[in-house]
Write a structure and sequence with these properties.
The chain has twelve helices and 15 strands. It has helices spanning about 40-50, 60-75, 90-100, 115-120, 145-150, 175-185, 230, 245-260, 270-280, 280-305, 330-340, 365-385, and strands at about 25, 85, 105-110, 125-130, 135, 140, 155-160, 190-195, 220-225, 240, 310, 320, 345, 345, 360. A hairpin with a 4-residue loop joins β5 (about 135) and β6. α10 runs parallel beside α12 (about 365-385).
């Protein structure tokens, strides 16, 4: 019913990911090479056909769709009063950093983690406090002892969590999240949780939304969610900020409105509503394709380059490739793969922590593209290693 096999021609389409030379193959940016659900396309077509594109506001049906989705998909329902519209997770994050902390404050993150977190922190004159995750062969653990010390520092005002984690796909457990939130509450640190990959759990695994924790624990939490990763809708510029505490919500509203991030474009509302009310069958099919793609990568690397270990914690279409066996920095590997075989992967050192041993690969593409990328990866790495 849904097509995940056709190779789309995205060159020359204003795609950031595909703005590369004709010989290059990009599997770096977190952008799927699949068309979105036809139900979403139909809703957007209907909107365009109206021919009227004036100023818009957020209708109650938008908040209802978000709340229904989390209840039906994840078993927890946010109150619609908790929801605030924003034009994207990253713009909202940067706005909240500016509003809820001061220049010179510490903001805790858990590397290796999404590199844009550092931009939101450091470009706004705050300090990154790295609660480096502990690498345990095939997954990461949280250093809670260090986290407690960092949250206790007088200048620590915020913590930014990635749940599930990017780049490793790690799904944090209920108990881990409860422990994080409890520590943040103990030291009066506001927790901002980026949950944009939460819908993309594989193998029937589920993630725990931060707002599903006990009410007493979530009064200093903010969750950032969006259909953009789930349905490949980044250009819609639509996200929801979920804030259970009314006073904190007023701070969030002030931040987003001051930064002009609270007004939708013509596609944001109909696209989001269609995704959350009609997109479930497409998402189910997507997950099946992603699982097949994961198996394709695992089998290919096992047979052709077993030195690479795949780290995938159960969520997202991003694979965290442990290349430490080659003893070559990830920045060098990424540069030489692009130069020698035209393959673009993300340099793991961008995510800090132990990322210098990793490359990040986006497997959300038709199998034909993925196979071609894997061939280039093996060919390129063997060439690089042979010349060392």
């Amino acid at each position: 019913m849904y097509d995940f096999q056709t190779v789309l021609q995205r060159r020359g389409s204003n795609s950031v990911k595909w703005d590369v030379s004709e010989q290059e193959l990009p599997l770096n940016l977190a952008d799927m090479d699949f068309t979105t659900a036809p139900e979403i396309i139909a809703a957007l077509q209907q909107k365009v056909e109206s021919g009227v594109f004036g100023y818009e506001e957020i209708p109650p049906t938008y908040y209802q769709a978000v709340a229904d989705w989390y209840e039906q998909e994840h078993g927890c329902r946010p109150d619609t009063d908790w929801l605030v519209f924003a034009t994207g997770v990253v713009p909202a994050l940067s706005s909240l950093v500016r509003r809820l902390s001061h220049p010179g404050d510490n903001i805790v993150v858990q590397p290796p983690v999404y590199n844009i977190f550092y931009h939101s922190i450091e470009n706004n004159g705050r300090h990154t406090l790295a609660n480096n995750l502990i690498y345990q062969t095939d997954h990461y653990e949280i250093d809670f002892s260090l986290l407690k010390q960092q949250l206790a520092q007088p200048l620590t005002s915020l913590m930014i969590l990635c749940n599930p984690q990017n780049p490793s796909g790690q799904i944090w457990t209920y108990e881990q999240l409860k422990q994080i939130v409890t520590l943040c509450q103990q030291f009066q640190v506001t927790l901002i949780s980026d949950e944009i990959h939460g819908d993309l759990t594989l193998n029937s695994q589920q993630y725990t939304p931060i707002f599903s924790l006990p009410d007493a624990l979530i009064q200093s939490t903010i969750a950032l969610v969006s259909p953009s990763k789930t349905f490949n809708l980044a250009a819609l510029h639509a996200a929801s900020v979920i804030v259970p505490n009314a006073a904190l919500r007023q701070q969030v509203l002030r931040a987003l409105n001051n930064d002009e991030l609270a007004e939708p474009n013509l596609t944001a509302v109909p696209g989001t509503i269609a995704a959350y009310t009609k997109g479930r069958p497409w998402l189910k099919a997507l997950k099946q394709q992603l699982q097949a793609n994961y198996q394709l990568v695992a089998d290919y690397l096992q047979h052709n380059l077993p030195e690479i270990k795949i780290i995938h914690g159960g969520a997202s279409y991003l694979l965290w490739l442990d290349c430490s066996a080659f003893k070559i920095p990830a920045s060098q590997l990424a540069q030489q793969l692009q130069a020698s075989v035209g393959l673009l992967l993300s340099d793991g050192s961008l995510y800090r922590g132990n990322g210098a041993d990793f490359l990040r690969l986006n497997m959300a593409c038709p199998p034909a593209i993925l196979k071609a990328a894997l061939q280039r990866l093996v060919q390129g790495l063997l060439q690089i290693v042979s010349h060392e």
